[in-house]
């Protein structure tokens, strides 16, 4: 990719953006950033790339320097970066400033606003800005705008209303929308709607393992183990394979990959010992395991081991053991799936214990753990 970044042909924003999106999804985000320096002339793409890597300080630095030269694409890019992390105040501030500069907001401007309020768990604000989009700016919402609205309503436990909107909107719901609503049903343990959402998701893609896993999680949270077993049986009968959890962390220019319960790393003994120490220390601070994340009935000792050894916890232990980031700097982890509630709870306590920020990019969003809390407000 480094060679590609220096090629003369990469001269337009579309090409730059394609490269940046690919780099942002790469498991070596810091390596990706070295290419961004060579893309300096395309400020919008550079802002977009920094934002997708979760480096808002860098994105804002480029934006502040080039503000007077940027078009609507650049403004939308910096707003989208803040929106990913639920920083609605910054998004609205930028939106207001953009209008003062004489720019006309477009659909992407409002997608950033709705995403910010949705990620922050602010349902009333999401509804207000959804209406403003059509009533004051004469912009028609697209599927992504509706997904934000449905997700925000789901977070607020307004699940029936969210389902009605999904079924009545002028677009055919896609898998992403049903998955969002299924996750909210699971969080609120509303099994009636969760079952319907799972069926709709499987109607779109019968091999979608997330439909089974999220539904099984919901049943486990409700203590309905017979239904959990039925979900697993149904999954097995359909020959659907559950995607395994995998986490990445970069240290000293090398990416280390961890799987749940994996002991193949050359420093496995040290990693597991470090993790055991961390878990024992946060238990003293008040951490209580989220047993509902266990999808099988096992003894408490086995439950604890299974929860302790999730891939993101192993990556974090290795990062602390290996001095991945200088003291005071954030530890950055990427995960291929949604971070589970137990790891989320543990990371809040660990951030308080080690007095450092921990940033986790899971399949849904960025989580910034600091001083015992997360910027997602415990809903994701």
Overall, the morphology is globular
- According to CATH, the fold-level topology of the largest domain is Serine Threonine Protein Phosphatase 5, Tetratricopeptide repeat
CATH architecture of the largest domain: Alpha Horseshoe
- Strand proportion, as a percent range, falls in 5-15%
Q: Outline the biggest β-sheet.
A: 6 strands, mixed
Radius of gyration (CA) equals 22 Å
Determine the fraction of residues in helical runs and give it as a percent range. Answer: 55-70%
Distance between the termini: 32 Å
Number of E strands: 6
Helix/strand order: HHHHHHHHHHHHHHHEEHHHEHEEE
Report the top-level CATH class of the largest domain: Mainly Alpha
- Unreliable parts: 1-14
**Number of structurally distinct domains:** 3
Say what oligomer this is. Answer: single chain
Task: Strand order, main sheet: write it out.
Answer: 2-1-3-4-5-6
Helix tally equals 19
GO molecular function, one term: zinc ion binding
PPR repeats: 12-46, 71-105, 208-242
Pfam family, one: PPR_2
Domain DYW: 286-380
What layout of secondary structure does this protein have?
Layout: H1 2-5, H2 13-24, H3 29-37, H4 43-52, H5 56-66, H6 72-84, H7 88-100, H8 107-120, H9 123-135, H10 143-155, H11 159-168, H12 175-187, H13 191-204, H14 209-221, H15 225-237, E1 246-251, E2 254-259, H16 268-285, H17 300-308, H18 311-321, E3 331-335, H19 341-354, E4 358-361, E5 366-370, E6 373-374
Parallel strand pairs: 3-4
Antiparallel strand pairs: 1-2, 1-3, 4-5, 5-6
């Amino acid at each position: 990719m480094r060679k590609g970044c220096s090629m003369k042909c990469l001269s337009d924003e579309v090409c730059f953006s394609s490269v940046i999106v690919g780099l942002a999804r790469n498991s070596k985000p810091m390596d990706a950033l070295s290419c961004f320096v060579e893309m300096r002339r395309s400020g919008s793409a550079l802002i977009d790339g920094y934002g997708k890597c979760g480096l808002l300080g860098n994105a804002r630095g480029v934006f502040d320097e080039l503000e007077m030269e940027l078009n609507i694409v650049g403004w939308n890019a910096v707003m989208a970066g803040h929106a990913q992390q639920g920083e609605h105040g910054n998004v609205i501030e930028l939106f207001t400033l953009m209008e003062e500069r004489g720019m006309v907001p477009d659909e992407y401007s409002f997608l950033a606003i709705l995403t910010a309020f949705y990620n922050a768990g602010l349902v009333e604000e999401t509804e207000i800005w959804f209406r403003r989009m059509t009533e004051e700016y004469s912009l028609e919402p697209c599927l992504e705008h509706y997904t934000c609205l449905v997700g925000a309503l789901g977070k607020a436990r307004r699940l029936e209303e969210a389902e009605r909107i999904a079924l009545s909107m002028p677009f055919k719901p896609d898998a992403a929308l049903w998955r969002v609503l299924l996750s909210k049903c699971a969080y609120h343990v509303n099994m009636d709607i969760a079952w319907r959402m799972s069926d709709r998701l499987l109607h779109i893609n019968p091999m979608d393992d997330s439909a089974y896993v999220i539904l099984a999680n919901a049943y486990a949270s409700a203590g309905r183990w017979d239904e959990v077993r039925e979900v697993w049986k149904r999954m097995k009968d359909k020959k659907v394979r559950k995607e395994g959890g995998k986490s990445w962390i970069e240290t000293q220019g090398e990416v280390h990959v961890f799987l749940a319960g994996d002991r193949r790393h050359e420093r496995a003994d040290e990693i597991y010992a470090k993790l055991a120490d961390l878990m024992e220390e946060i238990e003293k601070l008040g951490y209580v395991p989220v047993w509902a994340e266990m999808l099988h009935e096992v003894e408490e000792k086995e439950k604890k081991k299974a929860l302790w050894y999730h891939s993101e916890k192993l990556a974090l232990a290795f990062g602390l053991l290996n001095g991945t980031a200088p003291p005071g700097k954030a530890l950055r982890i990427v995960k291929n799936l949604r971070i589970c509630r137990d790891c989320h709870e543990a990371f809040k306590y660990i951030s308080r214990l080690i007095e450092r920020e921990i940033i986790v990019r899971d399949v849904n969003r960025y989580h910034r753990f600091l001083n015992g809390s997360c910027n997602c407000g415990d809903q994701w």
